[in-house]
């Protein structure tokens, strides 16, 4: 597989021709990252944009007392570093490889030229950024109005809807660890374990190894009312 063919899996570049992807690939810096490696750190001054060709990464921040806050996991086909590439600011989070990964990075000046040549890429980038903004807005709303128990329900629901859904059942595979769930919703792993056990006893969840099955999506959704009032709708 050529580097240009490898970039075909990057969502931003799905409209580019093979020749255009090949030219772009030649401008990128390619690097393999073992699982656990920090790729960028918070407040780093690098501005390069990264494309995840293989593997997956996680964007997090650590507080001064060592508490980890997870913002998002980004699979192959995704990007990170776009904030700094666009506004020239320092990195907003630490990005660590969740598994052995391959990235291609592009200098912001080169990326700006790509956006100018290809308005469809610029529009796709805007759509992705709006998606991140909507997700962040939803999380802020949850932190403001939901109890810890309901935040756990909301996170499971979010994972379930992104998993394998069939009728009213969803499979999350792999399901994150209790600590990973806790870091996403600002609580501790004991609270997550306690609530998951309660939901399992109630027949709503079924755990098998690293897989979690939600037996009744509608019921879980009914436990998390995230609807905004009509006057607050977007």
Structure explained in plain terms:
With 234 residues, the protein is α+β, with helices and mostly antiparallel strands. The protein folds into 2 domains: 130 residues, Jelly Rolls (Sandwich); 88 residues, Winged helix-like DNA-binding domain superfamily/Winged helix DNA-binding domain (Arc Repressor Mutant, subunit A, Orthogonal Bundle). 42% of the residues lie in helices and 24% in strands. The strands form 3 sheets. Strands 1-8-3-6 form a 4-stranded antiparallel β-sheet. A hairpin with a 2-residue loop joins strand 9 and strand 10. The longest helix has 27 residues. The N and C termini lie far apart (43 Å). The C terminus is likely disordered.
Topology:
Blueprint: H1 3-6, H2 18-27, E1 29-33, E2 38-40, E3 49-54, E4 56-62, E5 68-75, E6 79-80, H3 82-87, E7 94-97, E8 101-106, H4 108-117, H5 119-145, H6 148-162, E9 164-166, E10 169-172, H7 178-185, H8 189-201, E11 205-208, E12 211-214, H9 217-222
Antiparallel strand pairs: 1-8, 2-7, 3-6, 3-8, 4-5, 4-7, 9-10, 10-12, 11-12
Helix pairs in contact: 4-5, 6-7, 7-8
What does this entry show, briefly?
This protein is α+β, with helices and mostly antiparallel strands and 234 residues long. It has nine helices and twelve strands. A hairpin with a 2-residue loop joins strand 11 (205-208) and strand 12.
